[in-house]
Specification:
With 464 residues, this protein is α/β, with parallel strands linked by helices. The protein has helices at 18-29, 43-55, 61-79, 83-110, 115-122, 124-139, 167-177, 206-216, 250-258, 333-343, 367-376, 407-417, 443-454, and strands at 4-8, 34-37, 144-146, 183-187, 190-192, 198-200, 221-226, 243-244, 247-249, 279-283, 295-298, 310-314, 317-323, 348-353, 357-363, 384-388, 391-397, 424-430, 433-439, 462-463.
C-alpha cells in the first residue's frame, strides 16, 4: 500500500512536455505512490470564464470542446511516440470532454449555472489531466490506476464552491480503496457530497484534497512539487537575498499561505496537523538530481534568531469601514453585519473595532456586494460606510512573535524610516503573526524595508 501522497500542481503543467517530467519524478520514488494532480495550467480559469460566457449566450459549448480536444491532442502528440497508445489516451480524454460539453450545453439552455453544475464543470480540468497522466504512465510501463474522488469516496460536507472533507465518512473507505501496491492517480480539487454531487474544495483546493487523502491513509508525508524554491523569507521578486526556510511549523505555513505566500493553499495544513504528517516541498525544476525537500512543514517549533522567519504580503484584501459614534460598543451592529454577509457566503477575514469604527477585512472580489448588503441594513447608529480598495496587507510571521518583545517596534520603525503610513495593524490574534495595512503604492518599499530589518544582506541564498 502506498504511504506517500505526491501532489503535482498546475504550475507543473505549463508546457506540453511538462507531463513527462512528472513521469520521471514518479519513477524516481521507486515505490507505489498516491498521486494527486491539478488541472493543466490555466484550464480551471478557462472553464470558469467560458461557463459565464455560455450562460450569457456569448460563447458556445462546442467551441470549448474543440479547444480542449485540440489542446490535448497536441499534448498527446508531444508525449506519445506510439500512435496506438496516443489514440487510446485521446479517446478517453475526448469522452470526458464530450461529457463536459453536455453540461455546458445545459448551462446555455437554462441561462444559469446552479451551484452543483458549476462545481461539476470546474472539476473537469483535473479529470482531464488525471486521464492523461494515467495513460502516459501505462505507456512507460508503470502500473497505475485512475480513481476519481467519488469512487474512493472522498466525502465532503456538501457545501458547493468551498467544501470540507468529512473524515468520519471518508477515512476508512479511502484507506481501503488505496490498499494495493500500485500507483493511484487521483484528480484533486473536488470530492463528493453525501448525496453524490461533485463539490469543489475551494479555488486552488487540490493541495487540500491531497492533504485530506494523506490523512485518510495515514501517509508518512505529503510531497508537494512546485516551481519555486520552497518557503522563503520574502518574495524573491521583491526582496534581495531571501533566506530559505528549511523547517517551519504548521501554524507558520498556514499564516504565510493565508497572507499571500503562494506555496500552499491556506487549508493544506488543516487535515495534517493533528496527525503530525509532514509536508515536504520540492522544486520540480531541480528534477530528481536533488531529491531532497527544500522546505519541511511539521510540528517542530523552532524560534529563529531574530524571531521573524518571513515577510509576506497580499493585494487581495480590502476594507469595509462602518463609522459612527459608539458603533464599537452598541449591541447588535456587528451581529447584524456578520449575519447578512454570512448568508451571502462572504468571508470576513478579520474584524478590528474601536469606539467609533468597525473595520471588516474582506476579499476584494466581495467588496461591492458586501457594501450593498450592509447599506441595505439601514443601521441608524452608522453615519458612514466606506469601501477602501487600494490597500496591501503585510504580514510578519515567526514562531515566538508574542513571547519576544520588540518585534512590532522594529517592524514599525522599519516602515517609519521610509515615511510609510500604517493605516491599521493587528497583533495577538495568532501566536505567530503580526500584520498591518498600508496604501498599495507603499507595499513594495515596506516589504523590502522590513526584510532588511530582520535579515542580513548576503550575496547568496542563506538557510534558516
Amino acid at each position: 500500500m502506498p504511504d506517500i501522497v505526491v501532489k503535482f500542481g498546475g504550475s507543473n503543467l505549463r508546457k506540453k512536455s511538462d507531463v513527462l517530467q512528472l513521469v520521471k519524478i514518479i519513477k524516481a520514488y521507486k515505490k507505489p505512490l498516491v498521486i494527486v494532480i491539478s488541472a493543466n495550467f490555466g484550464i480551471t480559469d478557462y472553464l470558469f470564464d467560458q461557463m459565464i460566457k455560455i450562460r450569457n449566450q456569448k460563447a458556445e459549448s462546442e467551441l470549448v470542446s474543440r479547444y480542449l480536444e485540440q489542446l490535448y491532442r497536441s499534448i498527446i502528440n508531444k508525449n506519445f511516440e506510439d500512435e496506438k497508445s496516443g489514440e487510446k489516451a485521446y479517446l478517453q480524454i475526448r469522452e470526458s470532454i464530450l461529457e463536459l460539453e453536455r453540461y455546458l450545453l445545459g448551462v446555455s439552455c437554462i441561462g444559469e449555472t446552479p451551484d452543483f453544475l458549476e462545481d461539476l464543470i470546474l472539476s473537469y480540468g483535473e479529470r482531464l489531466s488525471a486521464i492523461l497522466l494515467n495513460n502516459l504512465l501505462a505507456y512507460h510501463n508503470i502500473s497505475s490506476k485512475l480513481i476519481y474522488p467519488g469512487e474512493l469516496p472522498l466525502v465532503t460536507d456538501g457545501e458547493f464552491g468551498n467544501a470540507s472533507v468529512d473524515f468520519g465518512r471518508s477515512s476508512e473507505k479511502v484507506n481501503q480503496s488505496l490498499s494495493s501496491d500500485i500507483h493511484y492517480i487521483i484528480p484533486g480539487f473536488f470530492g463528493i457530497s453525501p448525496e453524490g454531487k461533485t463539490t469543489i474544495l475551494g479555488r486552488g483546493g487540490s493541495d487540500y484534497s491531497a492533504a485530506a487523502i494523506a490523512r485518510c491513509i495515514k501517509a508518512t508525508s505529503l510531497d508537494i512539487w512546485k516551481d519555486v524554491n520552497g518557503f522563503l523569507s520574502g518574495d524573491p521578486e521583491i526582496v534581495n537575498h531571501p533566506v530559505l526556510l528549511e523547517k517551519i511549523t504548521y501554524a507558520e505555513a498556514a499564516e504565510l499561505a493565508y497572507f499571500g505566500a503562494r506555496i500552499l493553499h491556506p487549508r493544506t495544513v488543516e487535515p495534517l496537523q493533528d496527525c503530525h504528517i509532514p509536508i515536504r516541498i520540492f522544486n520540480i525544476q531541480n528534477g530528481t538530481e536533488k531529491f531532497k525537500p527544500l522546505s519541511v512543514v511539521n510540528s517542530e517549533e523552532v524560534v529563529r534568531e531574530g524571531v521573524v522567519k518571513s515577510v509576506t504580503y497580499s493585494d487581495d484584501f480590502c476594507l469595509l469601514k462602518l463609522k459612527g459614534p459608539g458603533v464599537g460598543i452598541k449591541p447588535g451592529i456587528l451581529a447584524k453585519v456578520t449575519t447578512i454577509l454570512n448568508k451571502s457566503k462572504i468571508n470576513i477575514s478579520s474584524v478590528i473595532t474601536s469606539q467609533i469604527a468597525i473595520n471588516l477585512l474582506l476579499s476584494k472580489k466581495d467588496l461591492k456586494k458586501a457594501l450593498d448588503l450592509v447599506k441595505s441594513l439601514g443601521l441608524t447608529a452608522v453615519n458612514d460606510i466606506i469601501a477602501i480598495r487600494n490597500i496591501s496587507l503585510i504580514a510578519v510571521v515567526g514562531q515566538g512573535m508574542l513571547e519576544n518583545h520588540g518585534i512590532a517596534a522594529r517592524m514599525f520603525n522599519a516602515v517609519a524610516r521610509k515615511k510609510i503610513n500604517v493605516q491599521m495593524s493587528s497583533s495577538g490574534a495568532s501566536q505567530v503573526v503580526s500584520y498591518f495595512i498600508v496604501d498599495n503604492k507603499d507595499r513594495t518599499e515596506a516589504v523590502c524595508e522590513i526584510h532588511k530589518e530582520f535579515f542580513e544582506k548576503s550575496s547568496r541564498l542563506k538557510k534558516s
